[in-house]
Design brief:
Layout lengths: L2 H23 L5 H8 L3 H29 L2 H20 L3 H29 L2 H33 L2 H21 L14 H12 L2 H13 L2 H16 L4 H12 L1 H12 L5 H25 L4 H12 L2 H13 L6 H25 L6 H33 L7
Helix pairs in contact: 1-5, 1-6, 1-7, 2-3, 3-4, 3-5, 3-16, 4-5, 4-7, 5-16, 6-11, 6-12, 6-15, 9-15, 9-16, 9-17, 10-16, 10-17, 11-14, 12-15, 13-14, 13-15, 13-17
C-alpha cells in the first residue's frame, strides 16, 4: 500500500465514521428553533437525539452479519441510501413525533458507515497497526464537532433548521461516490456465513464469549459515553442557562472539540512507550480527577460560562486516548467475525450513549449538574470494569497466542 493509498483510505474511512457525528452535532444549535417551529419543547426535541442513538445501536446489529456474509460494500451502499432518504424526510417533517421517527431511520441507515469503517480497518491493516489507524480515524472524527455545530448554527440562522438535514443528505451522497470509486473491497463475501437468526446469534455469542472483546468493549463503550452526556446537555446549558446564540454555541462546541483532536495525536507518541492497556488506565484516572473537580465546582456554583468551558475542555482531553485504544483491543482477536465484532462493539457504545443521553434529560434541573455528573460517572464505571476484567483478558490472550484456544 502506497502512502497516497494509505492516506486516501484513512480519509474515506474517516468520512464514513463522521456521518453519525455530523448527524448528531450539526442540528444541536437548532434545538430551540426546531422546538418553536414544531410547537414542542426542547426536552421533546432531545428525544430525537435519543432516537438516533437507539437507531445506531439497533442498526449495527443488523449490519454486522450482513457485512460478514455479503462483503463490505453492498450492505454499505444500502445503508447510506436509507440514510439519504431519511435525511430528506427529516427536512420535510412537520411534527416532533415524525422527526423522532425519521431520526431513527436515519440512524439505522447511517450506522452502516460506522460498522463498515471499523471492519475495514481490521481487513486492510495488520493488527499491529490498528491502534494507530484508529487514532487517525479518531482525529478525523474529532474534527467534525469543530465543523458541524458551527456550520449548523449559521445554516439554522440563515436558512432554517430544515437546511441542515438537506446538507447531511448531500454530504453523504458525496461520500457514497468516493466509496464506489476509491475504497478497496476489503473482506470478500463469505457464503458460509448464515443469516438465519440462530446462526447470527451464535456468531454474536462467539464474539461475546471472548474476554478481551467483552472487557474492552465495556470499558471503551461506557467511558466513551461521557461525551454523549455533554452533547445532550450542552444545548440547554449554554443556550438556556448562559443565553448564548446558535452561532456562539457552535463556536463553543468547536472549541471543546479541539480537546479531542490533540489527544489522538498524543496517542501516537504514547504508543511508542506504553501499551494500549496502560494508556486507557492513565486516561481514565485523569478524567476521574478532572470530573470530580468539575462536579464539585458546578455544585458549589464556582463556574461561569468561560470557566465551565475550560473544565469541560480539560475533561474531554482524555476522550481521544480511551476510544482508539479500546477499539483496537476489542477487535484485535477477530478475523472471520470482524464484522459481527464491530457491530456488537458499536451497538453497545451507541446503546449506552442513548441511555446516557436520556439520563441527562431525565435529571434535568435547570443546572449543568446532570450533564457533568453523568459524564464523570461514565469514567468511574469504566475504570472499575477495567480493573475487574483486564487480568482475565490478558490471560486469555496469552492462551490464544500459545495456540491453546482457536482463532476467531
Amino acid at each position: 500500500m502506497t502512502r497516497k493509498q494509505y492516506i486516501l483510505i484513512i480519509l474515506i474511512l474517516g468520512s464514513l465514521s463522521t456521518i453519525s457525528p455530523f448527524s448528531i452535532d450539526m442540528y444541536l444549535p437548532g434545538f430551540p428553533a426546531i422546538a418553536e417551529d414544531l410547537g414542542t419543547t426542547i426536552s421533546k426535541v432531545q428525544l430525537s437525539l435519543t432516537a438516533y442513538l437507539i437507531g445506531i445501536s439497533a442498526g449495527q446489529l443488523l449490519y454486522g452479519p450482513l457485512l460478514d456474509r455479503f462483503g463490505r460494500k453492498f450492505p454499505l451502499y444500502a445503508g447510506l441510501l436509507v440514510y439519504i432518504l431519511a435525511s430528506i424526510g427529516c427536512a420535510m417533517t412537520n411534527s416532533a413525533d415524525m422527526l423522532i421517527f425519521m431520526r431513527f431511520l436515519q440512524a439505522v441507515g447511517g450506522c452502516a458507515g460506522m460498522v463498515a469503517a471499523q471492519a475495514l480497518v481490521r481487513d486492510l491493516f495488520p493488527v499491529s497497526e490498528t491502534a494507530k489507524v484508529f487514532s487517525w480515524l479518531t482525529l478525523v472524527i474529532a474534527v467534525s464537532p469543530m465543523i458541524a455545530p458551527t456550520v449548523g448554527g449559521y445554516m439554522t440562522a440563515a436558512f432554517g433548521w430544515h437546511s441542515v438535514f438537506l446538507a447531511l443528505a448531500l454530504i453523504t451522497l458525496l461520500i457514497l461516490v468516493g466509496i464506489i470509486y476509491f475504497l478497496p473491497e476489503g473482506k470478500q463475501p463469505d457464503p458460509s456465513m448464515s443469516l438465519k437468526p440462530k446462526a447470527v446469534l451464535g456468531n454474536f455469542l462467539t464474539v461475546l464469549k471472548h474476554p478481551q472483546f467483552l472487557v474492552y468493549t465495556l470499558v471503551g463503550g461506557i467511558a466513551s459515553a461521557a461525551p454523549f452526556a455533554y452533547i445532550s446537555g450542552s444545548p440547554d446549558v449554554f443556550m438556556n442557562i448562559y443565553r448564548v446564540s446558535e452561532q456562539e454555541y457552535g463556536w463553543i462546541f468547536a472549541i471543546l472539540a479541539v480537546a479531542m483532536i490533540g489527544s489522538p495525536q498524543f496517542n501516537h507518541i504514547l504508543l511508542r512507550k506504553l501499551t494500549s492497556e496502560q494508556i486507557i488506565r492513565i486516561a481514565l484516572v485523569y478524567q476521574i480527577l478532572v470530573g470530580a473537580v468539575m462536579v464539585l465546582g458546578v455544585y458549589a456554583g464556582w463556574y461561569g460560562k468561560t470557566s465551565l468551558i475550560v473544565v469541560l475542555f480539560l475533561f474531554l482531553l482524555g476522550q481521544g486516548l480511551t476510544a482508539p485504544n479500546s477499539s483496537a483491543l476489542s477487535l484485535a482477536p477477530f478475523s472471520r467475525f470482524a464484522g459481527s465484532a464491530s457491530a456488537l462493539a458499536g451497538s453497545f457504545r451507541m446503546g449506552i450513549g442513548a441511555l446516557v443521553s436520556g439520563t441527562v434529560s431525565l435529571f434535568h434541573n435547570g443546572t449543568a449538574l446532570p450533564m457533568v455528573g453523568v459524564m464523570t460517572s461514565c469514567t468511574v464505571l469504566g475504570i472499575v470494569i477495567y480493573f475487574l476484567g483486564q487480568a482475565k483478558a490478558a490471560s486469555y490472550r496469552a492462551a490464544e497466542l500459545a495456540g491453546a484456544v482457536p482463532e476467531v
